[in-house]
Amino acid sequence: GHRSASSSPDIRERTLIAVKPDGVQRRLVGKVIQRFEQRGFKLVGLKMLQVSEDILAQHYSHLRAKPFYPDLVDYMTSGPVVIMVWEGYNVVQSTRSMVGHTNPVEAPPGTVRGDFGLHVSRNVVHASDSVEGAKGEIQLWFQRQEILNWESCDQAISCEL
Ligand code: GDP
Ligand code: MG
């Protein structure tokens, strides 16, 4: 239908999700993707890459002064990551709660980190923590043409609120 942007929920909200090197090594890519698919979110970008220290320094600029930063760089550059853009209503907040607390010890069962993680230094996935943050992260990791705008056949049921 024709509803104004102000009255309809933002079904085009996007977030950046990454399966970190430990998640790739442990063959958890499919399980992570399945959770977001079955929740109803739409995958609009996906690639596998070896992370450079340069992009990581931008991605984790808020952590550069932390004592664990060198370990974080070693961890994140230890192998390929699978990096994704997911779209849908309230996707940033919803995926953060599906991912769970940064420290898997604090992440409840049912969350990705609570089900698959043991330690904060190997916590399996990344998820943007705000809509604004997600915009910056998506710009950092993806070219515009790498993000696909596709209409899902169940749009009216799962997306148009
Ligand atoms: P996130 O948004 O939940 O991923 O958490 P942050 O943005 O605060 O931190 C980014 C990443 O840095 C986390 O996912 C961890 O992999 C890592 N990290 C955060 N805190 C610690 C810590 O105290 N020790 C270590 N080794 N890594 C940490
Ligand atoms: Mg973060």
From TrEMBL:
The active site is at H126. It is a peripheral membrane protein. It catalyses: a ribonucleoside 5'-diphosphate + ATP = a ribonucleoside 5'-triphosphate + ADP; a 2'-deoxyribonucleoside 5'-diphosphate + ATP = a 2'-deoxyribonucleoside 5'-triphosphate + ADP. GO terms for molecular function: ATP binding; metal ion binding; nucleoside diphosphate kinase activity. Its cofactor is Mg(2+). ATP binds at K20, F68, R96, T102, R113, N123. One of its GO terms (cellular component) is cell projection. Residues 12-149 form the Nucleoside diphosphate kinase-like domain. The keyword Repressor does not apply. Its EC number is 2.7.4.6. One of its GO terms (biological process) is GTP biosynthetic process. The keyword Secreted does not apply. It is found in: Cell projection; Mitochondrion intermembrane space; Mitochondrion matrix. Keywords: ATP-binding, Cell projection, Kinase, Magnesium, Metal-binding, Nucleotide metabolism, Nucleotide-binding, Transferase. It is an enzyme of class 2 (transferase). Belongs to the NDK family. This is Nucleoside diphosphate kinase. It comes from Solea senegalensis. The chain holds residues 41 to 201 of 201 of the full protein.
